[in-house]
Structure formats: structure tokens, C-alpha cells
Amino acid sequence: MFKKILIANRGEIALRIIRTCKELNIPTVAVYSEVDKDSLHVVFADEAVCIGPAISKESYLKIPSIISAAQVTGADAIHPGYGFLAENAEFSEICGESNIKFIGPSPDMIDKMGDKAFAKSTMKKCGVPVVPGSDGAVADIAEAKKIAEGIGYPLMLKASAGGGGKGMRVVWKEEEMQKAFQTASNEALSAFNNGELYLEKFIENPHHVEIQIVGDQFGNVYSYGERDCTIQRRHQKLIEETPSPIISEETRRKMSEAAILGAKSVNYEGAGTIEFLVDNNQNFYFIEMNTRIQVEHPVTEMVNNIDLIKQQIIVAAGEKITQIPGKPIGHCFEFRINAEDPDNNFRPSPGRIDYLHFPGGFGVRVDSHIYNQYKVPPNYDSLLAKLIIWGSDREHAIARAIRAFEEFAIDGIKTTIPFHMEVLENEKFRAADYDTSFIDKYFAK
To answer: Whole-angstrom Cα distance, residue 137 to residue 184?
Structure first.
């Protein structure tokens, strides 16, 4: 097992990793930017190193500074969390060259599966259903139009190196192709330094369902069930739940089998997710693989009684997976509490928290790094906390979530708490009668 782990991240995920390391008796090192000097991950880590100013590229994205911090403190492993450098193949490679274990997949795996066009081609070869579209990146607008003739409109243009909704455009008819292609390509180039696009059939009214997998160095890959991530805004997830309220047991089994097949075909090591779109007829299609821990991993932990961060660390240390999945128990939601104003198009709302009260009670978990008088910086992702609710079934979990939100208070800044309370009272949500356009249909302001 590792002697010391450096967490190359901030906020709630850094604190989450520190907690598991403490339970494993592994000392931790926090890295932080100047604006994060009073953050809780800095307080609760065994050691902390300032790696630069607030701007991410000069701190949390600055690989030399992070490697130096690991070397100075004697850390023999780095956990990247999610975001920042979590899916950066160069970072993983430099860790290896520096004799520091990157807690995640190999550089080659990150590189290949991070290229969505390559990942789709790989999954297709091993029999995992994929959305009809181009076999890889398209050369230009002319090729895109030619492929579109074969699969039909509407279709989706996606950045090959993309994520988080960047470089994505729906094209409803041929006349829209040129403008959409140029816009998506420019956006992808700006966000990922790679303007390549690939093309897929646009699945109308879908659910977004992902399978949590963990693979070890002995060829074992296990599925820990699915998460329904359909409630999202601009391709950013806001509410996740497990089990999915819309898929059958047969579809659940088939999706898990496909995810395991896909992960084994590339000898996947570590925690990851295989993501699918599911249509109204229970057909499912692979869309991408995330080679990291997900923001929404706690819902899987709650119904499976498993610590996924622990499994990541164990696998990275060269051990076999210790927690084999059984039958999930109950129903779980995760609500992302962001520093955003839902009444003003979810405008960011940084600032000082004047009053804070977290909900509690049976089946209520809050993962957060904030505290009373904490100053939310404007420099990073707006996630403040994750409210995770477990119930015996979906109806029970919704009732418990409403109770928890009635106790949840964050004053001084705007948050998405009122939005979540509205969603929980929405009849369509309660009946699981929605798709990925749910927020645009019912909550556009």
C-alpha cells in the first residue's frame, strides 16, 4: 500500500479522498492555490503545499508544481479526483516517469478512451451498441454532409476530444450544417486545443444512463449498477439517481454486460463509467467512457455499501478488487448544490456564506467543503455541496429529499436549492416522465 498520497484537486472531492485515506491509515498531502488557503481540504490533510495563484493554469493545472509538491513531501501516489488533470494522459505519464503512482488508468488508456471517436470505434468492434454515425473524426463539412445523408437528420456534432458539453451542436437539417460545424469546431479548438468533430444520429427524448465499473490489474471488471443522469442543463448534470426509474431489469442486465465487455476489451484498470443514451424503446447506445471517478459516485456507494475511492486506491496499489457487487438496496439521489442563481439563467454567484446549516438524519449524506463564513471564489467550478439521499424506494427517497431540503440553508449567496425543491414537486419528475430536455421544457427562465 502507498506510504503517502497527494490529492491533486480541491473542494469536496479532495476532502472526500482525504477521508478514505484516513480510514486506510495513509497520510495525505493537499495542494492548494492562494485563494484556497482556508479551504477544508487544506485543514484536514496531514500536509499542505501552496502551488500557485488562483488561476487554475498556474496552480491546479500546473503539472511541474504538483509533481514538485509530491517529491518534496515524499508522496508515492497522486489521486487526481475529477476535473482538472484527472483525464490528462500527459500528467499520468509524468507521474510514472517520476516514480509516482497515478491513481487511475494508464496514459495510453486515458488518451484512447478520452478520444470519443476512437472510444466509439473500439466499443463497436467488441459488440457494444453505439449510436449510428461516423467511424471517427470527419475531415470537413462535405464529409459530414455525406455521412448525414446515410443516417438522416437530426444529428449531433461532437468534439472528438470534448466533454462537459463543449463543441456540441444539434443539426436538424442540412442547411444548418455549415454554421453548426464551424461553431462546434471553433469551440472545441478553444476548449481542448483540438477542433476535430465526429457525427452521431441525434437520439430524441433520451435518458442518459451510465454504468459504474471498476477494473483491476488481474483482468477483473465489475459493474456496480447504473446511474440515471438525465436531469441536466447544457449537458451538465444536476441530479443523478440509482436505480434508473425507466429501464427494465433485462435492459439493466444487458447494459452492465456491455459495459463489462467494453472495459475488458481495453484491459481497463481503475474506476470508470461507460455512458449510454437510452431511447423510448429501451434501446441503448454507447456515447463515451469517463476514465475517472465521477461527481455522482456517492449514489452508487449508498445502494451498494461500497467505498469507490477505496477501490480506486486498492486497485492502483496492485491489489484485487475487494468489494464484489451484490444486489443494490434501496433508491438514491444526488443533488448538486451550486453557487448559481436559477432565477437568472443559473448565473454564477460567488461570495461569502453568511449562514450555513446542513440537513441530517437517517439516509442523508452531505459531501461538501464549505462552512459558515466561507468565501466562495469565482475562479472554479460552482459546486458547493452534494446532497445524497437514500430511501427504501424512489417515492420514499423523494419524500426524504424534500424534508432534507427544508432543513438546508445557505445564506449570503444564491444557490440551486430552490431549483431542486421545484423539481421534486414537479409531477413529470415524480412520474419519471422526462428526458434530457426536462429543464429546458419546464424550468427555462
So the answer is: 13
Q: For residues 440 and 166, give the distance between their C-alpha atoms in angstroms, rounded to a whole number.
A: 18
Distance CA 180, CA 190 (A): 15
Give the chain's domains with CATH numbers: 5-103 (3.40.50.20), 132-201 (3.30.1490.20), 207-442 (3.30.470.20)
Phi, then psi, of 2 in degrees rounded to 5: -70, 150
pLDDT per residue over 106-162, tens digit each? Answer: 999 999 898 877 888 889 898 999 988 888 899 999 999 999 999 999 999 999 887
For the chain, the residue count is: 445
Beta-bridge partners for 332: 242, 390
Q: Are strands 375-376 and 351-352 parallel, antiparallel or unpaired?
A: antiparallel
The one catalytic residue in 169, 292, 336, 400 is 292
Q: What three-state secondary structure class fits 255? A: helix
What pLDDT score does 445 carry? 60
Place of cell 441530517: 360
Question: So what's the pLDDT on residue 34?
Answer: 98
- Residue that the C-alpha cell 444512463 belongs to: 209
Taking the C-alpha atoms of residue 300 and residue 290, their distance in angstroms, rounded to an integer, is 16
For residues 382 and 349, give the distance between their C-alpha atoms in angstroms, rounded to a whole number: 8
User: Rounded to 5 degrees, what angle do the CA atoms 14, 235, 256 make?
Assistant: 75
Residue 433 confidence (pLDDT) above 70: yes
Cell of 6: 497527494
Q: CB of 169 within 8 A of CB of 192?
A: no
Give tens-digit pLDDT for 8-55: 999 999 999 999 999 999 999 999 999 999 999 999 999 999 999 999
For residue 41, give the DSSP letter: H
> What are phi and psi for residue 136, nearest 5 degrees?
-165, -160
Quick: pLDDT tens for 316-372. 999 999 999 999 999 999 999 999 999 999 999 999 999 999 999 999 999 999 999
CA-closest candidate to residue 332, choices 302, 362, 360 = 302
How many angstroms separate the CA atoms of 107 and 227, rounded?
26
The beta strands (E) that lie in 167-300 are given as 169-171, 197-201, 207-215, 221-233, 236-242, 270-278, 284-290
Does residue 292 carry a catalytic annotation? yes
Query: Considering the entire predicted model, what is its pTM?
Result: 0.89
Pairing, β 236-242 against β 331-338:
antiparallel
pLDDT value at residue 116:
78
